[in-house]
TrEMBL record:
Species in which this protein is naturally found: Salinimicrobium flavum
Protein name, UniProt field: Glycoside hydrolase family 2 TIM barrel-domain containing protein
Transmembrane segments: none
Entry keyword set: Glycosidase, Hydrolase
Malectin domain ranges (all copies): 728-840
UniProt-listed Gene3D superfamilies: Galactose-binding domain-like, Galactose-binding lectin, Glycosidases, Immunoglobulins
Pfam family of the protein (one): Glyco_hydro_2_N
Annotated signal peptide: none
Amino acid sequence: MRELLFILFIITSLTSFGQRNIQSLNSAWEFTSEVHPEQLVNIPHTWNAGDAFRDGKEYFRGKGVYKKTFFVSEEWKDNRVFLKFEGSNQITTLFVNDQRVGEHRGGYTGFVFDISEALKPGDENRIRIEVDNSHNPDIPPLDADFNFYGGIYRDLWLITTPKVHFELANEAAGNLLIRTPEVSEATGKLEIETKIVNSSTENKKTEVKIDIFDPDGKLLKSLQKNVHLKAGETKKVDFAHTLKDPELWSPSSPELYRAEASVSAEGMKNDIIDSKFGFRWFEADPEKGFFLNGKPLKLIGANRHQDFENLGNALPDKLHRRDYEMIREMGANFIRTAHYPQDPEVYRTCDELGLLVWSEIPVINDVTDSEAYYEVSLKMQREQILQFFNHPSVVMWGYMNEIFIRLVFNDKMTEEERKEKIQTSVELAEKLEKLTKDLDPHRLSVMALHENEIYNTSKIAELPDVIGWNLYMGWYGPGLENFGKFLDEQHERYPNRALFISEYGPGADVRNQTNDPKPWDYSEAYQLKLHRSYINQVLERDFVLGMAAWNFADFGSSFRQDAMPYINQKGLLNMDRTKKDIYYYYQARLLEEPVIYLAGKNFTERYPENGSEKLQFTVFSNAPEVILETNGQQYTSKVEEGIALFEIPLPEGIHRLTAKTGKQNYSREFEVKYRENLLSHLEKDDLLINVGTHVQYKDPVTKEVWISDREYREGSFGFVGGEIYQKSKDKFQGTASDIQGTENDPLFQTMREGIEAYKFDVKKGKYRVTLLFAEPEYSASEENIYNLSEVSEEKAAGIRSFDISINGETVRKDLNLARDYGRIRAAEISFIVRTDGGLEVDFANNLGKSLLSGIKLAKL
Ligand code: GCB
Ligand code: CA
């Protein structure tokens, strides 16, 4: 076993001596940490893929150590040797043969270490990499709504070069900077910058050559310079050229050129590097919106986090790529890499697919007033810009997100401290703005703000070229229509500001279904309602540059307690990248090719009251009119804003419905069961009710459907008395706490408080009645800071006691949920009862108000 841990990594001979050799160094690293036993792992690797979803905020943040021993051949003494990291979170320290080579701070940009001096050619060499993801007040992000997964989570490369080579230690940028300072339909001006290093002990006469290839791979132009380098010297070498009639890069034709740089010394080719690039120009007009290559282009797309179900942030390139392909297939033309620079594969993909990119560094929520914090922030921006400089997809560099949100929610700060914090933040923003423009005057600078006046009063919003607003009206704050009002008001007050909607969206859990959506019900229907309204409000306003949904996919956030704990569920897709219905809605709004989609992927069981009640079906399409066909009947409906609604009665049973337009069709099976008749179904089906809500819930494990609640009527079933429980006034229903002891949080989060009875007009027989409860009250001090509405008042400590009787017989006396089971914990009690007809479960309060989250009736 032991020798396995010291697998020799033998590099025999280099393919062609004297040229750059690039090979991945991902496999079989020996890994340990304070809490992890020694194990062999492969990079990309994170040690938080599991615990961030199990232990919440307690996920391990500390130091992990990666080790490997490998043999370096004798020939390497004539080379320079580098380790290139694409990303490692967040302080990375490299030791070669126990000699400390260097340290890198910041978890989201690449970096390179020159290990030549520490290596022993012709011998075994030990590499040790220490990675630390502890909270560090000097490194952004200090705090954010996502997980800071630790580890070497992007590819690691071993690179050797001859002694005369293109520089790569500096910024890890590849060091071939390609600028396109002036572009038009007629000409494309090119400026190319390289840096050559002579790390030999002799002076060198070199020839540096640039070959430019068109999008078809045809050589267009060769440029050449002779450069003399002294021993140990590094020199910048610039080239310029203007191309005629460039093929412009755009979403509809993402044309990519390529430049190849080579350096030869004494007639021998020493080093070659290359990069793709593109020609396009753009502007952000505060009145008319965004323009690409002189034509208006409304930017519509999403934000994207880099984590994935079961993998944390350690994704193979293929999964990064697939995400962006799905964004493009959705019809989007825009992506914000919120909240940090992403894998190099991401930018390559966006170039190829024609997606426009806002890329940003993770300066989020708060800043530290320290020189070190400033320094790391600026270095991050520098690395981001230089590393992704050549990508035509990138149009905006971002450097801050909601930087005052901590300040706004901190009631312990004095006025003086507030002023200082504002000043620190504004000063940092000024420095970041200046650096951004110095490095890249041809792109737009941008920052994202939350809905608060402080960004205006502090004047921080005056700094960047573009302002992104993260707006959550209809979710954290009331009223979908307030979104447009806010935009109009800002536009009127600041007519010279180019405005973008950098985030919007509600939480949506595919287990929650309804046709009657309300804020905070976490239903897919409410997600559709909000996105539809926001898209309309943006399209009505030319001055808005564009919009990016929050978020492309659900993502991990350890402090969150939504319908699913530790996950932010605002995704258009789930964390495993299965699509929510809303994804197809965007297709219907954005794609030009014909789209038809019968919604209700996760809403295939329907429970009407009776046979005459109409059932609602939703079809997404970009056709003017669509047909819904079932049981040989055809129904037609007009499409408005991508949606055709159908209301049709269907008999009990399983029905195949097909939505059609032109040659396109989309089918789905729906099962219809009458609620009135559910009692008569009891012989074979249990009756399950999600008490305290209009939402129907599906348990993904048992596949049981808990139907929405209803008031009792004679001959049927339902509740008597009480009210829908509301944790806070502005959330329509329930609590968003992580209910312990269950995976079915939404079922327990919603409940009826003060309920008097639950009645079923059943036949004579033996039954099992199962009651579901959870005490929702705890100390209100831990509120979600992203909720901009008022923090709820702490309710009277949640002490309650009630008696339960069934058909007049007391079955449980003095049930006190907090005492008997604990707070925020699922409790389930089943009673076996007999009746000669009818079942009535009564609740009698001793102290506080009774509660009920769910009820299940089974005939035995
Ligand atoms: C925001 C933040 C983002 C959060 C999002 C939310 O404004 O910028 O990081 O995840 O809201 O879901 O609350
Ligand atoms: Ca419930």
